[in-house]
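User: Please predict structures.

Assistant: First:
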Amino acid sequence: MAKIYEATVTAPVNIAVIKYWGKRDSALILPTNSSLSVTLSQDHLSTRTTIRASPEFAADRLWLNGVEEDISASKRLTNCITTARKLRAALEEQTADAPPMSAWGLHVCSENNFPTAAGLAS
């Protein structure tokens, strides 16, 4: 069995008090104007995401709150994974002993301890 590489991060909930309207650059997701938001303590509301990479993973997969989702349905997520792979490939070119994770499948598991579509960002 091949080694599985894993990383886990958490992110707090962010509530927009004054939300921006529109984007001046859709590709970079830059807002037209500024916004004001509040970040809450992770002791109460947060998202925990674990990503695993392995040469044995045949495809990229995503689970959100225990339910598998279709990664291809999200252009934003697909772009994020593509960009991460490019950055990883650049690192692999510079570091001879780096495992070739840019070519491996990814399994992403993300869990919120708040309702996912509640209008809260993490």
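Second:
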Amino acid sequence: MSDGAIFAKKPELSLAQYKFAVLNGTPEQSKAAKQKLVDGIKQDKMASYYTILVAEGVLQEDRALARELQEASVAELAELDKNVEVAKEEHGDLEQNESSIHRAVFLAQMGEEEKAHTAYEEVLQRPTTTLNQKLDIVFGKLRLGMFYYRPIIVQREIDRAHELVNKGGDWDRRNRLKAFECVWRCSQRQFKEASDLFIECLSTYASPELMPLSEFVCHGTIACAVTMSRSDIKKKVIDAPEVVEVVNYIPNVDKLLR
């Protein structure tokens, strides 16, 4: 995009759900979730996250896999470091910031939580970082906080995002913030706040890096069912084109609404 937008898609939030299922699901659910967790770790070269899960007893150690992940992550990080240096030598401030953000995203992807936060923050504090780039960084930090369930960090970054948006953030990022906050409020059982945010951003939802529309509708409609009157649910949720589009793919929610 022309403004250098980088909406972090990593780490995959679904992996945190799989970890929860491994620890808390039925034996069948745990087995299926463990395989999905390992597959996701392999796909995203999550060497550091794999090490954490082995240490926590979530996964059994596979030394060959650990070595494979380490080699792959080191190689990609070296390539990203090279891109940062090239940007410094051959490009302007926007491209330099972009390359540094991409590097921070990969640190988050591989499971280096603290290093990713530090890398994000370093770019955020640069005088050359644009307002929109700052917002993209905050969304990346928000995602990290949600993945590792760090409520203090998540609330801090939500507050920071609101401050930046009020300084002139564009429509797309304003809407993205509402989507992030809606999902977070749902997780905190703040259903009134979540339902209001859901209604506000449903018709313009454009945050596939957060979750698919069907999953967002699932979260939002549950919040609405808890807090809204039947007439408002019918008018604002059941009849909403975005809900109609996906509700058949989430049958339990369909039953709840009807």
